[in-house]
Every structure is written in structure tokens, then in C-alpha cells.
Amino acid sequence: MTFAPIALFVYNRPEHTRRAVDALRANRLASSTELHVFSDGPRTAEDAPRVREVRAFLKSIDGFRSVTPHERDRNFGLAASVINGVTGLCETAGQIIVVEDDLRVAPGFLTYLNNALERYRAEPKVMQISAHMFPVDVPVREDAFFLPFVSSWGWATWDRAWRKFDPVAAGYAQLKADARRRRAFNMDGAYDYFSMLEAQLEGKVDSWAIRWNLSVFMNGGLVLYPKKSLVENEGFDGSGVHCRGEALDQAIHPALIPEHLPSPAIDPEAMEAVFDYFRARRSPRGRLHALWARLFG
Length: 297
Fold this sequence. Notes:
By secondary structure, this protein is an alpha/beta fold. It has 11 helices and 10 strands. It has helices at about 15-25, 50-60, 80-95, 110-120, 160, 170-175, 180-185, 195-200, 210-220, 270-280, 285-295, and strands at about 5-10, 35-40, 65-70, 95-100, 105, 125-130, 145, 155-160, 220-225, 230-235.
């Protein structure tokens, strides 16, 4: 098996970056995995010293097959940095694992994602592998299941899927004209993704994830989720540009490596359980709002 390279996206949080790297390095496959670190340039003069501190740390990283820093000479912003980095690495490697600097991953993170990348490599409907899972008990026997929307907290994909990424959100017009499709995009009314998409097009937010979610939806794509999360987010401490609201319930499962992977199809009961979780928290002032602001903001 050829292991997927990791794309780690960092900015001006040296302590978060250290913890993210330490967690990745604790994975058994780390020593066989290429690590590419995309360091965004400072947005303001005030950010510059901490960006330099992050970049100094990058030079000390070991424990991986190789470490390649990509230092931006200007500030791309998170969305452009992710799109540019994922596109380039997908083109050269054919597959990719994506992590941001505020994520802590379990020791089985790389094993699970690489196994799933291999398992579904030739399944065109499978467009993403997620390592994050919401605190929901899903009624499935397998170790993982499929949902029709993406996650941005520790994920993997292939070049064949990422080539369908629609950066200009051309699918918006179809959703605007078709109420049934729009409701499906909004997870049967569980959360208003469409308003987030409109905010993106109006320039109110700059999100790669809402556009990737639209791309997966318009292609009838599937995303594999583990029954229990292999990722937790430490970015709700107010340190990040895109971190808003209080932290959500998260429980990382350090010993879990999902092995029983299902055939590519949505389990209706599992999907309804997840949608019910969203419906219960969809108040604009509620905790789900904080989650999606972080995921797609």
C-alpha cells in the first residue's frame, strides 16, 4: 500500500501546531508518511512574530518519512491555502490526508484513513473519508457508515474526487431553482447549508468547506464516517481566526481503528440519527451554530 501524504495547514499558533504534530507523530504509520506543512503568510504585522515562531518549529520536526514546509510569501487566508495545497498535492500524489493546526488526532488516525482510501479507491461515489464523528450513537453494526455531506476536521480524499471541486459554486443556481434539491442539501431541513452558500457567494464568508460540500452533493457523493471520532478540535479557545462560540462535546477514541468498512451506501437509520442530532441543536444561538461556524466559516 502507498500511504497518502499529510497536508497540515498552519498559521500563527505555535502551541497548537506542536500538539497537532505530536499527535500525528504518535501514529504508527507516521514514519512511513510524507508530511507537507503549508504555512500561511502573516495577515498583519502583529501576526508576523508568531508566524516566524511556527516556521522555526517546522524546521525541527522529525518522525515522518519526510517533512516539506511550504511557506507562503503572503497571506492566502485559510480557504485559498487549503484549496491551493490540496489541489497541488492531489495532482502529484493522487491522494491526500488533510489536517489543520487545531486538531488532535488519535493514534489510529492514519491507519484508518489509509485503509479507507485503499478500500474505496475505485468507488467513484465515495468522495471523502472523514475521521471526525459527532457525539451520536448510530444504529449500525459496521465500524463506519456513509453520510451525504463533508467534514473538515481531519479527512482524506483522492485526486479523482477533488477534481470535481467547484470553486465558483456553479451548482448554486440549480439549488436556488429547485426547492426539493435545496431541502436535501439542507439535510432534510436539519441545517441551513444553503444560507451559508449564499453568504459565500455574497462575500460574507470565505469557506472552502461549503464549496466542497456543494461539490460532493451535486455529484451524489458519499462521505465515510467512523462510529466514534478519531479527531477532536482544540480551536475553540479563541486563538484562531475562524474559531467562534463554545466548544462542543467531543470524545476522541485513542484505541479505535475502524476495520469493518461498509459497502458504499447510506444507512437511512444512521443518517436520521445524525440529522436528529443537528435538528436538536440548530438554533442560531445554539451549540450547532458554533460547530458549523467553525467548520464552514
